[in-house]
């Protein structure tokens, strides 16, 4: 009987010892895992700190933070009496959109409304400039000072050919010379057909001056960036062109005035 109880106690002691061993092993594995995670975090923090001290996370100021502006408005001499300070158009105007440029012309007993179809996609900066100047009333009551190259030249408040806003820009919509194997056929196709409207600043840097062609103009190379084409009122410009110029000058025979110039979205009614 005693021996049976002794064996029972021994078995219970063995089970208890095995349980202690398992618990010890589990505790040891847990400590090992915790130690490994701690070491990993410590190394990660050391690595991040070293990188920060080395300037890895510093912003590189040499790299542009944004895309460059679409339009560059070149400043002109603010003290030039022929220049008018009206600020500048937006640097990043819309790059699409159909517009109508409405020009109300007065010329003696003639005159009338000329409407020009303008596509902003052809020259976003040029379109933005026209909209900006029209909103400032820049063109209103200005004189069209010249007839040249089969076109009426307008848009200079000083009427000298030297005037414009206090900025300039490079027009983008230059016409392409016709490509044809037959030189005579290429020569017969004008770069600036009648009805073309183009920027016309004599400096080549565009501002406010524009040309409305009442005749085909044959040029050997592109000279003027195109604004658009007359959609209505071409007869008004042709009448002014037919009246000719004052003797010995390029000034229209009868004074031609831009009563107003406005730009509106295509499809909208003109404002009175």
TrEMBL record:
PPIase cyclophilin-type domain location: 112-263
Keywords (A to Z) from UniProt: Isomerase, Membrane, Transmembrane, Transmembrane helix
GO molecular function, one term: peptidyl-prolyl cis-trans isomerase activity
PROSITE patterns: CSA_PPIASE_2
Gene3D superfamilies named in the record: Cyclophilin-like
Composition skew (Basic and acidic residues), residue ranges: 9-20
Domain of life: Bacteria
Annotated spans, Disordered: 1-30, 64-97
Transmembrane segments: 35-57
Signal peptide per UniProt: none
Keyword Transmembrane helix: yes
Name used for this protein in its record: Peptidylprolyl isomerase
């Amino acid at each position: 009987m005693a021996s049976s109880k002794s064996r029972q106690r021994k078995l219970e002691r063995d089970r208890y010892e095995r349980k202690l061993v398992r618990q010890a092993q589990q505790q040891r594995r847990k400590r090992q895992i915790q130690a490994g995670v701690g070491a990993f975090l410590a190394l990660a923090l050391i690595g991040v700190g070293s990188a920060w001290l080395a300037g890895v996370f510093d912003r590189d100021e040499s790299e542009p933070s944004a895309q460059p502006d679409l339009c560059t408005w070149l400043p002109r001499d603010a003290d030039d009496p022929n220049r008018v300070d009206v600020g500048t158009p937006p640097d990043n105007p819309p790059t699409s959109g159909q517009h109508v440029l409405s020009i109300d012309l007065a010329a003696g007993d003639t005159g009338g409304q000329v409407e020009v179809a303008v596509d902003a996609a052809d020259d976003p900066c040029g379109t933005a400039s026209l909209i900006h100047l029209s909103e400032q009333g820049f063109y209103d009551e200005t004189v069209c000072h010249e007839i040249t190259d089969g076109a009426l030249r307008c848009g200079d408040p000083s009427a000298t050919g030297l005037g414009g806003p206090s900025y300039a820009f490079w027009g983008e919509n230059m016409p392409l010379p016709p490509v044809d194997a037959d030189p005579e056929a290429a020569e017969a196709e004008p770069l600036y057909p009648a009805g073309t409207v183009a920027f016309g600043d004599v400096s080549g840097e565009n501002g406010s001056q524009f040309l409305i062609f009442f005749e085909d103009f044959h040029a050997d190379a592109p000279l003027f960036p195109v604004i658009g084409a007359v959609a209505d009122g071409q007869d008004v410009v042709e009448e002014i062109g037919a009246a000719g110029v004052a003797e010995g000058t390029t000034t229209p025979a009868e004074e031609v005035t831009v009563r107003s110039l406005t730009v509106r979205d295509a499809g909208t009614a003109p404002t009175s």
